[in-house]
């Protein structure tokens, strides 16, 4: 009855055909729902709820609408690749370069026939199950969701950082000055890319300890780079010179000769290898100075303050979406439908923020704009905001 009242329908009026609900996604496609989400962002910008210069980024896993034990196909990577092609899996959303891996990830060996877009991923020591991952950016002022992207759960958080930043700038028409995130976003490549764009990098630093952690040897930071000679000075005072270029990583590697490393008294603290003639190798990426500047900004007092605010701002945004809008569980199957779910939840959250922070007597333009959006959302998504509050917001 509340829905009929809000839509202006009497008890004896004909109601919309069931296809309004059941076929809306197939008829309109992902693009229409994306425009709906962008429209809510634009309205919040006009209402002064978005500053635009600082964003907080994070991601959250979503359980796919598929069984963790049934309709799973196990096989070789070649078989799974063929099945993904047969199911028209969106590969660009699933695959990432997997350098230096000595094992095959679970999602390379298993595919769910129920939802082949969702790879099998383990989370917090629980059983592996098909999952997606939702990435989003929220504005620093009120937490308005300005950018969102859904990928397979196997995609690393940091690989979506630049895309979210550019998406925020397109949707708001404002340039980002500071990017805030946890250490999953603080990779060397992200620091280099954002610094090259003139952004302040207030992310946590992801320092891969690698060989140093596993074998108890000197870390990269204990070697001093000298720009004048383009060499590294090791803890023993010897020099590592440039030896070649690594195309995969995009940087130069440096080594000392066997005659220097072989008799060195610090050899066991520098490297361990059963191979004769092995010496310690260091990789210096292109744009290393940008990376170092990014590290300095990440360790500043303002960066630490921003990361503390991030814990309540964007994690609160995910928590509110999970508690009130079923965010943690996919309602539909396949990646494009999951993206629609993400757009709808983000749009509803933005509207609620608009209602919370905008005076009751808002302009006619805002009222008309959001009344049409609410009408659409109420027909295609279960909104838990009490309709009495909606009525009070619109007044007449």
Low-confidence stretches: 94-104, 361-365, 382-390, 392-396
Total helices: the number is 14
Share in β-strands: 15-25%
Helix content: 40-55%
Give a structural overview.
The chain has helices spanning 2-6, 19-22, 24-46, 77-86, 161-172, 188-196, 210-215, 258-261, 267-270, 288-298, 301-325, 335-357, 364-380, 387-394, and strands spanning 54-63, 72-74, 110-112, 120-121, 129-139, 145-152, 178-181, 200-203, 224-226, 231-233, 239-246, 251-255, 281-285. By secondary structure, it is an alpha+beta fold. Strands 1, 4, 5, 6, 7 and 8 form a six-stranded mixed beta sheet that branches. Strand 7 (178-181), helix 6 and strand 8 (200-203) form a beta-alpha-beta unit. Helix 3 (24-46) packs parallel to helix 12 (335-357), helix 3 (24-46) packs antiparallel against helix 13 and helix 6 (188-196) crosses helix 10 (288-298). The longest helix is centred in the last third of the chain and has 25 residues, at 301-325. It is globular and about 95 Å long. Mean pLDDT is 81; it is low at 94-104, 361-365, 382-390 and 392-396.
